[in-house]
Specification:
This protein has 243 residues and is an all-alpha fold. It contains two helices and no strands. The protein has a domain of 95 residues.
């Protein structure tokens, strides 16, 4: 069987490996003696001078023209427009706003404040002093009504809390009964099925795998693949293609 494996390696694997080594050697030689020198020559004598020429003959003049003919005039124009807007618009608007504020304070706010003080505040203060006893009686009545309402709300809250506690207890007992009747037998049955069916089948499958597939794989590796690999290594070493 080892001789057959060596023959397969000499007839099938070795020519493919020799062609691959030949292609790799030709590619390395082309890169070292042709492509790399040509690339360095083109970069040094063509691309670098072209980049320098474009930078100094095109890019720098364009930047100078843009800065002096477009950007600086736009900056000066913006500053002039901002100065005109400040002198012709903002300053007059500020003075107009101050005048309108003074006019509103003098003509509208001060008369309205005087009228509100003498026509609303003073009569309201006098009425409040006269109605103070009635207000105290009204406050006492509202206090008593509030206490009665709080007591009633507390009693209703106690009743609702008791009903809620009973409903919670009843729901818990109902859920427990449902679990005992339906879910717990299912869980126990699933556990029994796992222990007595799934686990034995899994163990039998693992034992069959160890008894059949593992020995066959080990035999194929030791009898066929390892001799082919060793023969290929020896031939390549003898031909000087592998160190």
């Amino acid at each position: 069987m080892a001789a057959v494996a060596r023959g397969i390696a000499l007839v099938v694997v070795l020519p493919v490996r020799l062609v691959w080594e030949l292609v790799a050697a030709v590619g390395a030689a082309l890169h070292r003696w042709l492509l790399a020198p040509v690339g360095r020559f083109v970069d040094r004598w063509l691309l670098r001078p072209l980049r320098w020429l474009l930078h100094h003959a095109l890019w720098l003049p364009l930047v100078w023209l843009f800065r002096n003919l477009i950007w600086l005039p736009l900056v000066w124009l913006g500053r002039g427009l901002a100065w005109l807007a400040r002198i012709l618009v903002w300053v007059p608007l500020v003075w107009l706003g101050r005048g309108l504020a003074w006019l509103a304070r003098t003509v509208v706010w001060l008369p309205l404040a005087w009228l509100g003080y003498h026509l609303v505040w003073l009569p309201a203060a006098w009425l409040a002093r006269r109605l103070a006893p009635l207000g105290r009686w009204l406050l006492a009545g509202l206090t008593a009504v509030g206490r009665w309402l709080l007591r009633g709300a507390a009693a209703v809250a106690r009743v609702l809390l008791g009903a809620l506690r009973w409903a919670w207890w009843a729901a818990g007992r109902l859920l427990w009964w449902g679990y005992v009747v339906t879910l717990r037998p299912f869980v126990r049955g699933a556990g029994w099925l796992w222990r007595h069916a799934v686990v034995p089948v899994g163990r039998a499958f693992a034992a069959a795998w160890r008894a059949t597939v593992t020995p066959a794989t080990r035999w194929l590796r030791h009898t066929v693949l390892d001799p082919i690999r060793a023969t290929t290594r020896e031939v390549l070493t003898a031909l000087g293609l592998r160190h």
